[in-house]
Amino acid sequence: MCMMAILLSSSQVCSASDYVVKMKRKSGVYAIPCEVNGVRRDFIFDTGAANTSLSQEFVNELLQKRRLQQSDFTGVIQTRNASGVVDNNTTINIRQLKVGNRMIHNVRAIIAVSQKAPLLLGMNAIELLGEWTMRNDRLILHNNTEIQPIVEPTTQDVNDDNGYYGNVEREPEMRSGNTGEVRGNVSHPGIRLSAYNGDAEAQYLMGIKYLNGEGVPADPKMAVHWLRLSAAQGYKIAQLQLAECYSLGVGVEVDERRAEYWRKKAEEE
Predict the structure, then answer these.
(1) What domains appear along the chain, each with residue ranges and CATH number?
(2) Which DSSP string corresponds to 69-120?
(3) Which of 184, 230, 247, 255 qualifies as a FRET site for 123, CA 20 to 30 Å off?
(4) What pLDDT does 195 receive?
(5) What is the pLDDT of residue 5?
């Protein structure tokens, strides 16, 4: 991973209006504390990356905490890594990204293929910070201006099955025509994007694909993840399938109490 920086000479000092952020050195790169829609995480400050990038694990956490909305999922783009592998990435809009005392808005981020990929603050976000320099483990943001407060979401968690289930996705590698090796978190782009956007039928279909290994490696835990999201929205076929998973111990421990719960939910008018 390449990272470039503008370094201050030892004779340079900060002005009174500058804001200094202490960074953490990790494996040869610097990580900086950020807030994505109010959720704090350390991001690698990577001027060698064009795009800000989030792991699937972190996106699932944001969904759990209701810090992402359906409208925040904006589409799909392709990126190519240093090995020439093309990744199909779902994109999201970060409504509020706080770095130090700077608040920037509507930053596009890609969802990385790897479930535990590092969080990267790319140039599309860094360029919005204004003038900055680095000195050792300090990021100095020049000419500080007032920031806007985080607007807390008001949507309540209405999942009756004890909240969100955060098992994140692992995607296969694929080959596509003359484009070389392709992999991604959108192996079924239309269905998957609809599932991310909260469509209950699409979430059910993703669950079935993971159950049966249709276009993706069979993954019972991932199947249960999607079935739960669909079932929580009242999609009755998903509720019955989820009950069956609990009864047979497919992707979860056998739990007849929850199996019966979802059967009863499916029978409700």
Answers:
(1) 19-141 (2.40.70.10), 187-267 (1.25.40.10)
(2) -GGGEEEEEEEE-TTS-EEEEEEEEEEEEEETTEEEEEEEEEEPSSTTPPPE
(3) 184
(4) 78
(5) 40
